[in-house]
Design goal:
Keywords: Membrane, Oxidoreductase, Peroxidase, Transmembrane, Transmembrane helix. By secondary structure, the protein is mainly α. The chain has one domain. It is built from 13 helices and two strands, in the order H-H-H-E-H-H-H-H-H-E-H-H-H-H-H.
Length: 241
């Protein structure tokens, strides 16, 4: 009797169908998604690192808040910090049409252009931290590649918040429920926290980046984007053979 209940609990037809449908969406326009996302990141990083190494004018050191002093250096947060590159790839990966993918790329591209323009007009950096990088070789590599410039607004946080809004809006149409939407928000918050925990940003950078990401997401939101759970069947028909 106990075994039959366990077997019944382990079989969830709804979850299996959702997983299969999600995999099919991931496979649609695979090369556009993979090559497009990679090309976008390469172009962005070329501009980002150029401004990082060639600031135009005096570089302002961002002030510390009490929150920055409260959040100490936490090496365990590095994987969460680096998970951004997976996180921001999820919205286009979960889209099923070329127009959606291109539209998302243009919108997040606008966000990045705004951030890069701010870095050009107002170069900023985080204050120096007393971290023994010899004890943390992973952080030494990070600091060597991505120094403390281009600080405010944090584009790390801005793109995470922008992606969080899109994933939340897309969730009902994809068949994802409240649990997945909470997980999405927790992941976004964890990324924002990690930028301070690894001392790549201070609180002012994080708040500014969050405001920028939320504002651009809302302003550029496609009309009628809000999906209800009832639209999940319609989405399933779109991706059906």
């Amino acid at each position: 009797m106990a075994e039959s209940k366990a077997e019944a609990a382990s079989i969830n037809p709804g979850a299996a169908a959702l997983a299969w449908r999600t995999l099919r969406i991931l496979g649609r326009h695979f090369w556009l998604k993979s090559i497009g996302t990679t090309a976008f990141m390469l172009v962005f990083f070329a501009a980002y690192f150029y401004l990082l190494r060639h600031p135009d004018g005096h570089v302002t050191t961002m002030p510390l808040l009490a929150l920055d002093r409260w959040i100490g250096f936490q090496p365990w947060a590095l994987p969460i910090y680096l998970s951004l590159w997976v996180y921001v790839s999820l919205p286009p990966a979960l889209m099923s049409s070329r127009s959606e993918i291109v539209g998302f790329g243009l919108r997040i591209g606008a966000l990045c252009l705004i951030g890069l323009a701010v870095f050009y007009l107002w170069p900023t950096k985080v204050p120096p931290w007393s971290i023994d990088l010899a004890r943390h070789p992973d952080f030494a590599a990070l600091k060597g590649l991505d120094a403390g410039g281009n600080a405010c607004p944090s584009l790390h946080v801005a793109t995470a918040v922008f992606s969080a809004f899109w994933l939340d809006w897309m969730a009902p149409g994809l068949g994802f429920g409240a649990r997945m939407r909470r997980l999405n928000m927790l992941w976004c918050l964890a990324i924002a926290y990690s930028t301070m925990a690894v001392k790549q940003h201070v609180a002012v950078d994080v708040f500014s980046g969050a405001a920028l990401g939320a504002a651009v997401a809302w302003i550029t939101r496609p009309r009628g984007f809000r999906r209800s759970a009832a639209n999940a069947d319609e989405r399933a028909e779109v991706i059906a053979p």
